[in-house]
Design goal:
The complex is a heterodimer of chains A (108) and B (887). Chain A contains 4 helices and 2 strands. Chain A is mainly alpha-helical. In chain A, strands 1-2 form a two-stranded antiparallel sheet. The two termini of chain A are 28 Å apart. The longest helix of chain B is centred in the middle third of the chain and has 37 residues. Chain B is built from 29 helices and 24 strands. In chain B, strands 1, 2, 3, 4, 5, 6, 7, 8, 9, 10, 11, 12 and 13 form a 13-stranded mixed beta sheet that branches. Chain B has a 6-stranded mixed barrel with strand order 16-17-22-19-21-20. Classes of the chains: A mainly alpha (108), B alpha+beta (887). The interface between A and B is medium-sized, with 22 and 24 residues.
């Protein structure tokens, strides 16, 4: 069952953990942009979230509509236990693979 | 202006908003678009409107090109208690569900509508012709009465027999005798021949029709000398007498003499016993007349049976009467008894088989359409399996799922019924225009409420059948596995076997239709290749009638015919012209017994019968009928010259097997005619129809036969026959004012008419076969495409392991061929079993005809190949990386 997580999936899951209860599309995108310095589109975030949802790694809840959003509701995401497990497994895999390599590649 | 500017800049660009809303699938559209708008406003505040707009567009383009993952994409179920009893609710959900697959829904509806439309068109024609009761009160009690010959065939009655049978009061309530009558009708400007009937006075009572104006005939009018009265049909009353309501009691000119109009029939009256009849006059026979004898069998008898009469005992009673008559007049009767033919039976028997064959054919089309729709819906259901599984997991009952599928079926059926009915209205028009004249009651055909009910019923049945089948397949398969197994469980081979079976069945049905069409095509082309025995190029024919007191003298008639021929001959471009009492394929049949001089002692009742043609000189040359030996009829064969006769080859060989026919003598018709010397033998012609046997034919000079007031003119011209018609008409009218000209046709047209009913059936069959092939190909294509998509991973693995593209291609094509081959085998088998249905339409070909077989196999093979080609090509292009990663 464990197919591993893609890199962007890892980034999104990490962003969810960082953001806590405020994790919705724009916030996730901003968090990744700020932390990684790369430009991320909302579409990419959503397709990834959908995939995580499909794999039952994240759960969602709906927020209230706000005027800045043209009366549309927010959809908040939080990682499920399975999501945290997958993420840990992926990061551990990275960690073990980098161990002992050139210092610049090694993860803490 | 400035507010516009502001509005534009404070809001995201509308086109980009539209595009991204359109691109993002439903459940996430709201949140994602909301995010985009929120970000847009943040950016607008921070970086300015232009930058924010540019950003919004970039996001939109990104969304448009993004690969959107497949999602379960669930429509939200309405709360359970609200929808449990509400059909409307479930229809609304179904409508939304169908709306998510608009192309497929349109395809299913179009397929079913095509089937419903075609079937309803043919059904409308067949219903009017076959199933509708004759439009007479209690028509079930109306029957025609015939003498039954020893071979079971029916023959007409002599007047004396009619009178004797009519006395059988235990059987009949009322009876009438009828004879065909083709009088001319003259008014100030023109004389035309119309179809009429001479009938005994109770005729209208028997049918149960009451004249709209005036009355029917009185017993005292049904007597020789008092019979110059007529009843008009509604059409002729309208077209020739301007719907004049004061016509009753006035005189009109019929056959050149005055007849008093007694009545006008209502518009609803249809003359089914003598189609096209517009004029009725009393028969005016009594048993003392020479032509009213028992063996003068030229009358038909129609009778209204008593309400308590039982057909079996009625037949026995009539047979008993016939037996008594036979004992009394042994020389007059040689038959075996009588026959009662219900009027309905009489009307439909000529075309029943052809129409039933067409109904069967169109039924096959409807069945194929239904299978095809079921196949498409089954494919969709398989793709929706995880949706259903999730619905079940979320608490939907199987009943709810079934209700959803049935509601979808219902919506499809309603749409198919509506479009199918519209198609039927067009289709009926086409069928009626194609149909030959022989189909009874064609003018009554229309898409009425009955036909619409039929269309609706058929659409409901096929629509629901097409959606129930997939539902059953799905539910029986069980859904529990799907939710756990995820997408991969969709490749259930059992379900594909069902789709495969549906496709094979479609192919089998298509084979039957293609076989039928090619059998008919073979028949028609063989028929067209039949040599009628006469030439048709640049030849035309028309029937001429002389009527009125001045033609009561046969000398005047002969003189008029001579002058008419002369004037036609004088037209530039006319090569030759002649008159004949009847011509091949012209619809008239005159048969006479032949009595050979050297067999003078033979019983006249055993005389062989031959078609008799009374012709002017040059008739055979004009018709291009070849002279085999002896000589033609010439101008020297005058009235008082020694009587001569020409035989065709069949007659010469049959009557004089020794081959020495010329110089022998025989009588044509009756015992008191002169002995005629055979002077020539000519080629055979097909008289009744191209698919009949060649019969004995004899030609006698018209002047030696006794002049007739009605003759058929044939003209052979240097120019196209149709362009000669006006000149011929003008020449005739100049010489013989008041001549009635009718049935003007080129001989090519007469040949065409002779094959009309088969070409009609062929046109419809061919149309159905094409539709069937297209539907079967679509079914095959759909199934193969679906398996290619679902086997993409397997194909990817095969390619990754080094399978050649050609092998992959062959694999898919082979799968298509196995399905098509199975259908082909079943279809051919079924064709052999069912050729009987169209047997009356066949001519010279059978179901095992190698050409037919070849046509069917090649066309099906080609269609199957084409349908497999694209899926196979797609399979061969599967990129192993993508296929494997996709899992």
């Amino acid at each position: 069952m464990n197919h591993g997580l893609g890199e962007f999936e890892q980034l999104v899951l990490l962003a969810l953990i960082r953001l806590g209860t405020e994790a919705y599309g724009v916030a996730i995108r901003d968090e990744i942009e700020q932390q990684t310095g790369r430009s991320v589109t909302v579409g990419a975030v959503y397709t990834t979230l959908l995939r995580l949802e499909d794999k039952r790694l994240v759960a969602t809840r709906l927020g209230d509509p706000t005027p800045q959003r043209g009366g549309r509701r927010k959809k908040y995401y939080r990682p499920l236990a399975a999501g945290r497990r997958e993420l840990t497994a992926s990061l551990n895999a990275l960690r073990s693979m980098t161990r002992g390599l050139t210092p610049g590649l090694e993860l803490p | 202006m400035s507010t516009d500017q502001d509005l534009r800049s404070v809001n995201p660009p509308w086109l980009a908003l539209r595009l991204s809303s359109w691109r993002v699938p439903e459940p996430d559209r709201e949140y994602l678009i909301g995010d985009l708008i929120e970000s847009f406003h943040e950016r607008r505040v921070r970086y300015g409107a232009t930058s924010a707009r540019r950003w919004f567009w970039r996001e939109t383009l990104n969304l448009l090109t993004a690969r959107w993952p497949e999602t379960p994409n669930l429509p939200v179920d309405p709360p359970a208690e609200a929808s449990m009893d509400s059909l409307l609710q479930s229809l609304r959900v179904a409508l939304r569900s169908l709306g998510r697959a608009p192309a497929l829904t349109a395809l299913v509806v179009a397929t079913l509508a095509l089937g419903v439309g075609a079937t309803t068109s043919v059904y409308s024609v067949a219903r009017a012709a076959l199933f509708a009761a004759p439009p007479y009160p209690r028509s079930d009690r109306l029957a025609l009465v015939w003498e039954r010959d020893k071979d079971g065939s029916e023959s007409n009655l002599g007047y004396a027999t009619f009178e004797d049978l009519s006395r059988e009061e235990r059987v009949f309530e009322s009876t009438a005798a009828m004879s065909y009558w083709f009088p001319t009708l003259s008014d100030g400007s023109e004389t035309t021949r119309i179809a009429g009937q001479r009938v005994t006075w109770r005729f209208f009572d028997v049918l149960g029709v009451k004249p709209m104006l005036g009355r029917g005939f009185m017993p005292e009018e049904d007597r020789l000398g008092a019979d110059r009265v007529v009843v008009l049909g509604h059409n002729v009353w309208k077209s020739r007498f301007g719907s004049d309501s004061g016509i009753v009691g006035r005189d009109i000119t019929v056959n050149g003499v005055a007849y008093r109009v007694e009545g006008v029939l209502p518009p609803a009256f249809e003359s089914l016993l003598a189609p096209g009849t517009e004029l009725w006059a009393p028969l005016a026979y009594d048993a003392s007349l020479r032509w009213a004898c028992r063996s003068c069998r030229h009358l038909r008898m129609v009778a209204r049976l008593r309400p308590d009469a039982n057909p079996v005992t009625a037949g026995q009673l009539l047979d008993a009467t016939y037996g008594r008559l036979k004992g009394q007049f042994p020389n007059e009767y040689a038959g075996a008894g009588t026959v009662l033919t219900p009027v309905h039976e009489f009307v439909v028997r000529g075309t029943r088989q052809a129409l039933i064959a067409l109904l069967a054919a169109v039924g096959l089309v409807a069945l194929i359409a239904c299978f095809n729709a079921a196949n498409l819906l089954l494919g969709r259901a398989l793709r929706r399996e995880s949706e259903f599984a999730l619905r079940v997991a979320l608490g939907a009952s199987y009943r709810r799922l079934a209700a959803l599928l049935l509601s979808e079926g219902l919506i499809i059926a309603i749409a198919a019924a509506a479009i199918g009915s519209a198609l039927a209205v067009i289709g009926v028009d086409v069928v009626v225009r194609l149909a030959p004249m022989g189909v009874p009651r064609l003018d009554q055909v229309r898409v009425d409420s009955g036909a619409l009910m039929f269309a609706a019923g058929l659409a409901m049945f096929t629509g629901l059948a097409a959606s129930v089948l997939p539902a059953l397949a799905l539910l029986r398969g069980g859904l529990e596995g799907s939710i756990r197994g995820g997408a991969r469980s969709l490749v259930g081979s059992g379900r594909h076997r069902l789709r495969g079976a549906l496709v094979a069945a479609e192919v089998a049905l298509a084979v039957m239709l293609v076989s039928g069409a090619s059998l008919l095509f073979g028949s028609v082309s063989r028929l067209l290749a039949v040599d009628g025995g006469f030439a048709t190029g640049n030849r035309l024919s028309m029937e001429l009638d002389l009527s009125g007191p001045r033609f009561n003298d046969s000398g005047a008639v002969a003189e008029t015919w001579r002058a008419a021929l002369e004037s036609v001959h004088a037209i530039p471009g006319v090569r030759s012209a002649a008159l004949a009492s009847q011509i091949p394929l012209g619809g008239n049949v005159d048969m006479y017994g032949l009595h050979l001089e050297d067999r003078a002692g033979a019983n006249p009742a055993e005389d062989p019968y031959a078609l008799r043609y009374a012709v002017t000189p040059r008739y055979l040359e004009t018709m291009g009928i070849p002279l085999r030996s002896g000589r033609h009829i010439t101008d020297d064969d005058r009235e008082r010259a020694p009587p001569v006769v020409l035989l065709n080859e069949v007659a010469a060989n049959r009557l004089f097997p020794g081959g020495n026919a010329i110089g022998r003598r025989l009588q044509v018709g009756g015992g008191d005619g002169p002995q005629r010397t055979v002077v020539g033998i000519v080629g055979n012609t097909l008289h009744r129809a191209l698919d009949r046997e060649r019969e004995m034919q004899v030609y006698v000079p018209a002047v030696q036969w006794g002049e007739e007031g009605g003759m058929t003119l044939v003209v052979h011209s240097d120019v196209a026959a149709s362009s000669a018609i006006p000149a011929v008409r003008r020449a005739l009218r100049d010489v013989v004012p008041g001549v009635a000209i009718s049935k003007v046709a080129t001989l090519e047209r007469l040949m065409d008419l002779s094959t009309a009913d088969r070409r009609f059936a062929l046109a419809l069959f061919a149309g159905f076969a094409v539709v069937a092939l297209v539907l079967a190909a679509a079914g095959l294509f759909g199934v193969l495409s679906a398996t290619v998509v679902e086997r993409a991973r397997e194909i990817g693995v095969r390619t990754a392991l080094g399978a050649q593209r050609g092998r992959i291609l062959a694999m898919v094509v082979r799968q298509g061929m196995v399905l098509a081959g199975t259908g082909l085998a079943v279809g051919l088998f079924a064709t052999w079993g069912s050729t009987r249905i169209i047997s009356t339409l066949l001519f010279g070909v059978g179901a095992s005809d190698p050409v037919v077989l070849a046509v069917v196999v090649t066309s099906l093979g080609a269609v199957a190949l084409v349908a497999s080609a694209l899926p196979a090509w797609r399979a061969s292009r599967v990129d192993p990386m993508i296929a494997l990663r996709d899992s």
